[in-house]
Every structure is written in structure tokens, then in C-alpha cells.
Amino acid sequence: MAGLPVYPWRLAPEGLATFRQLRALGLRPAGQPVVAQLERPRRRRGPLVAYLYRIDLARPVRPMTPAKQAALAAANAARRVCPECGRDAGYRIPPSLGSCVPCADAPAQAA
Fold it and tell me: Do 34 and 67 form a contact (C-beta atoms < 8 A)?
């Protein structure tokens, strides 16, 4: 993001906020462009960067509609079902395992 003002960590001017700070205030960026960035130096890697938005141009977060809520519930339920045994695991199945813990720990069955 060339040409943006860069501020040191925790020294942003009043009226600017990060995405998470906007969310905490119940706001969203609403399509506005990034106006500045914060940089926090790190020892062995590049700096951490947080983008800043204007608070006065932010709009309220849209409310969750019943259709969105149902779609989110269905997606979360699908992530709980084990593809190996077909049971509801009771937790979100980790993508690294690809199946519930009992199925992942079971020895591979010889065909």
C-alpha cells in the first residue's frame, strides 16, 4: 500500500480505527478505502501491519437475518459430521485430520 501514511503502533490519530476496533464499536468500513496503516516492528521478520479506516465514514453492522443465521448453522453442522463414520463428532473436525479423532486414531484397515 504505497503512499499511505504510516504510524507507529498505538500512535494512530483520533478518528481512525482498525477493522477490529470498528467491529467492537458495532461498525463496518462500508467500502471505504484504507486511509493509513499502523506498523509494529518485530525482531526477525517484517513489521506487523494493521490498516486504518475513518470512523466517521463507517456504517453500522448489518443485522443477522434469519436466512443468514440458518445458512451459518447448516455450514457449522456440516463441519461437525465425520466423512469416515458419518456421525456428529460434537466439535468442528480439524481439516488437518479430515475425520473425527477416533477415526483418525484407528489403525488403517487392510483391504
Answer: no
